[in-house]
Amino acid sequence: MWVGHKFPGIAVLLVILSGCQSGNLGDLSTYGDDAFTNDDLSGVAYYRDDELLKQAQVQFRAKNYGKAYSIYKKAVELYPKDPVAWIGYAASADMVGRFDNADKGYKVLAGMIPGRPEYLNNVGYSYLLRGNLVAARRYFLKAYDIDPNNETTANNLELLGNSVSFAKRG
């Protein structure tokens, strides 16, 4: 009884603490929540297989170009030799109007896959978005020469033909 009279704060603290303990102290983390809720963050930069690229592709297809651009940007940092990451990065940069970054991506791709229709179509589409129809046509025709049955190339050439009749906007 002397504890309550001489040190009333200690008595109150003991009552409060007796109500708080409901398990093993080893289950608590230093932040007060359960230890199992604290994930190990040492492997944050690790992505299983092509998980990051799949996320970026989903965002691109959903026309969330800003999100796709951010994810592809991370992908090219993690996988600097992966042409899929670079082509997605450049294409999403085009779609958000970051032509400077798109050009960087296409420059890297020129060393990786210079004669591929995917590369040529993307570069041509980039020029189409910028309003440079002559350069766009040049790249689309190169892609057509490589693969005349490529559906994307056919669509891009049709889009180019339709673009000629529209007024140029600044």
Automatic annotation (TrEMBL):
Which UniProt keyword terms apply here? Repeat, TPR repeat
> Superkingdom of the source?
Bacteria
Q: Which Gene3D superfamilies match?
A: Tetratricopeptide repeat domain
Q: What ranges cover the TPR repeats?
A: 49-82, 117-150
PROSITE patterns from the xrefs? PROKAR_LIPOPROTEIN (PS51257), TPR (PS50005)
Protein name as catalogued = Tetratricopeptide repeat protein
Question: What Pfam families does its record include?
Answer: TPR_14, TPR_2
**Is Transit peptide found in the keyword set?**
no
Q: Which SUPFAM superfamilies match?
A: TPR-like
Statement: the UniProt record of this protein carries the keyword Repeat: yes
